[in-house]
Amino acid sequence: MTSDLNISLEDHLRDTLSSVQRLLPCELSAQLQIYFTQPKPALIPYTVLQSVSQWSRSPSGSSALRSATPPRDPNNFSMVSLLAGTTTSPERKFGSYVLPRDPEEIEAERKRERRAITTLMNALLSVGGSGFAAWWASQHAGWKKEWRALFGLFVGFVVAIAEAVLYLIWKSRHSAPTKKTRRRHQESARHKKNEGDGDSSIVETEYSEARLRRRGNPDQSIPSE
């Protein structure tokens, strides 16, 4: 929606609007009057500029601009011309732009999620299997059922702690390469950009030197690339 947008009222835009104010319809001219008073407003609604642009493209507006003294080009009052050198809604604070994620990075993250789910399932099975194995093995020691159950819970608790520690270690080791990979991609992109700029500068320099040699010796032609 452009109805709630404001445009920075720069000096050149204010001069452009003031030069055409007397040619505008009365209602639109009255709307512009408040933007020429002191203290000068710093913003102007987008809709006001849009109304001026629409009027300049109408038959009456185009005729009024061309018959003015001095004549004015209606194209100078298009939205592209009016918005040139201005800022849209400078009073607002827009969020920072976030670069889209690399498809390879997204696929790698999905693989890590699947591995994490598999690891958790294996841990649960290990805890349950260890507890059941301890409970089943303790029956040969002649223990009562209460002690066998406590022993199975104890073994399962110990295995759960061990699995949790191993999972945290695994997660910390797999999260670090992700940041390194992202940093390496960014450095590689900057390196390629710098290399491209250097190559273009070399080519431009060689071409300029060849042109200078040709001017010094008209018989010498520029070697084809």
Automatic annotation (TrEMBL):
**The keyword Transferase is annotated on this UniProt entry:** no
Basic residues compositional bias: what residue ranges? 178-193
- Out of the domains of life, which is the source? Eukaryota
Q: Where in the cell is it found?
A: Endoplasmic reticulum membrane
Stretch list, region Disordered: 178-225
User: Where this protein primarily resides, as one coarse class?
Assistant: endoplasmic reticulum
GO BP term, example: vacuolar proton-transporting V-type ATPase complex assembly
Q: Where are the transmembrane segments?
A: 119-137, 149-170
GO cellular component annotations, sorted alphabetically? Answer: endoplasmic reticulum membrane
- InterPro entries per UniProt: ATPase_Vma12
Entry keywords, A to Z: Endoplasmic reticulum, Membrane, Transmembrane, Transmembrane helix
Task: State the annotated membrane topology for this chain.
Answer: Multi-pass membrane protein
Q: Does the keyword Transmembrane helix apply?
A: yes
PANTHER family hit by this protein: TRANSMEMBRANE PROTEIN 199
Q: What is this protein called?
A: Endoplasmic reticulum-based factor for assembly of V-ATPase-domain-containing protein
Taxonomic source organism: Guyanagaster necrorhizus
Q: What taxonomic lineage is listed for the species of origin?
A: Eukaryota, Fungi, Dikarya, Basidiomycota, Agaricomycotina
